[in-house]
Amino acid sequence: MAALKKTKLTLEERAFETAKILLEKYQNPHNLKLEENSNLEDSYTILITLLYTEKLNEQEQLAIVSIIDEMKLLDGNR
Predict the structure, then answer these.
(1) What superkingdom does the record give (predicted)?
(2) What is the pLDDT of residues 13-37, one digit of tens each?
(3) Does the model's pTM come out above 0.85?
């Protein structure tokens, strides 16, 4: 169980950092906000929105897809 929690924290940190970087890089027409105390769902919402509304490069798309895949795995293990 401790390993699952550690993985989740790592995923949450990765999602937050990815969302933060992409929000700084791309215009934010939807006025999405990411704060230091944002949770995984907040980051996920931003990442999905950016994935569908911006022309991301392949590396950025893969980063988002890998986070989504990990989230699906965690949800399947709950």
Answers:
(1) Bacteria
(2) 999 999 999 999 987 767 888 888 8
(3) no
